[in-house]
Amino acid sequence: MEGEPSTIHWHGMPVPADQDGNPMDEVAAGADRMYTFELPEGSAGSYWYHPHPHGRTAEQVYRGLAGAFVVKAKVDPVPAAYGDTVLMFTDLRLAADGSLPGNTMKDLMNGRVGDHVLVNGQKNPRLAVATGEMRRLRLYNATNARFLRLAFANAAMTVIGSEGGLLEAPLAADDILLSPAERVELVVSFDRAGAATLTTLDYDRGWMGPGRPADAGLTLLTVDVSETRADTMPPLPERLNPIASLGQPTVTRRLVLTETMAMSASGMEMGFLINGKAFDMGRIDIVARAGETELWEIVNQADMDHPFHLHGTQFQVVERERDGQVARSPYLAWKDTINVARGETVRLITRQERPGARMYHCHILEHEQLGMMGIVDVRA
Ligand code: C2O
Ligand code: CU
Ligand code: CU
To answer: Ligand 1 within 6 A of 66 CB?
Structure first.
């Protein structure tokens, strides 16, 4: 990575636009840059940071430049006895000589999926708990392009939070789909002695061409639950954190995601577009007003799922539509990334509080690089 420009983007965090590591705000190789920001009250959540330089994000991230950034609340309704553990998933592809091979045509189409899913940099690490223990776990999908549908064998999962903080009430779950860049906060109860494993299930996200990776049956983490009984754990409260409604939207925007295929000198080339356009750093796609609530309709007319991400704020998903069937979101949650399945429309409401240029894009980083990104300029 010698000699490359970079930036640091604070994924999901409400930081000023000129501190958010935008692609047009590169730090030259060898230069330094101090990012400063103050987080507003009420922004506790599971964030992360990664580079965002123009045309180089995908490679810098799969080579390892990313980290978790947890913002803790001063007053936290989740019992401290559960601990607070980050599980950050990445996936690594290693060549026979131990090097990291560059992206292939297949990677550019589908996004780069590696061969080894790692948790905090380790393959199938172990965690030891006593019977009856409850643990707070923050799961991060920090892979470039791997969809993770996850389940715990021999332990019970309760969802307590999304990217931007706690839900209003806990919600039991059998399995969880985490698309690239999504996060979830869980409380997991280990009530039976033995091994409790976190494993992957099948999920078809629309794979182009041959070589679809085997999604199911990977063991990502093994929890050894000892015969010893844990001290009685304080119960999880029934109410967690109130989530304010963003109010009635005054503007509606429609963003249509498509894929194109074109012949070039080097063969077939894929393009990933929003409203028919590939990203242009010098173009403003949307002008918005700070403090105004907007409804964004993300329409996926492509053959693959695309996890949609917006910078600078957290949004609320209102509903999803597929084949004319509309499903309202069953609960409120603060999100900054949402999977839009192929053929699906997701409606979300959002409000940017601060002025400046913000990016929105597919978080399959190879798709972002090949054009599926735009700029919303928020004006005071
Ligand atoms: Cu995770 Cu535009 O970023
Ligand atoms: Cu981001
Ligand atoms: Cu995509």
So the answer is: no
Tell me which CATH code domain 9-71 carries.
Answer: 2.60.40.420
Q: DSSP state, 364?
A: S
Q: Please give the CATH number for the structural domain made up of 251-379.
A: 2.60.40.420
2 — pLDDT class (breaks 50, 70, 90) = low
Question: What pTM did the predictor assign?
Answer: 0.97
Q: Which atom of ligand 1 is nearest to the CA of 9?
A: 3
**pLDDT averaged over the chain?**
96
Whether 165 has a pLDDT exceeding 70, the answer reads yes
Kindly report, residue by residue over 301-331, the tens digit of the pLDDT.
999 999 999 999 999 999 999 999 999 999 9
Residue 181 CA: nearest ligand 1 atom is 1
Strand order from edge to edge, sheet including 156-162: 116-119, 85-92, 133-141, 183-190, 156-162, 165-173
Pick the CATH number of 80-229 from 3.40.140.10, 3.40.109.10, 1.10.10.10, 2.60.40.420: 2.60.40.420
How does residue 269 score in pLDDT terms, banded at 50, 70 and 90? Answer: confident
Q: For ligand 1, is residue 318 a contact (CB within 6 Å)?
A: no
Q: Could you tell me which residues come within 8 angstroms of residue 41 by beta carbon, excluding any fewer than 6 positions away?
A: none
The HSE-up count of residue 373 (CA atoms within 13 Å, CB side) is 25
Question: Tokens 């990012």, residue?
Answer: 35
pLDDT digits (tens, 9 = 90+) for 169-219: 999 999 999 999 999 999 999 999 999 999 999 999 999 999 999 899 999
Q: Is 226 helix (H, G, I), strand (E, B) or coil?
A: strand
Residue-wise over 122-146: b if at least 16 C-beta within 10 A, else e? eeeeebebeebbbbbbbbbbbbbbb
Q: Is the CB of 11 under 6 A from ligand 1?
A: yes
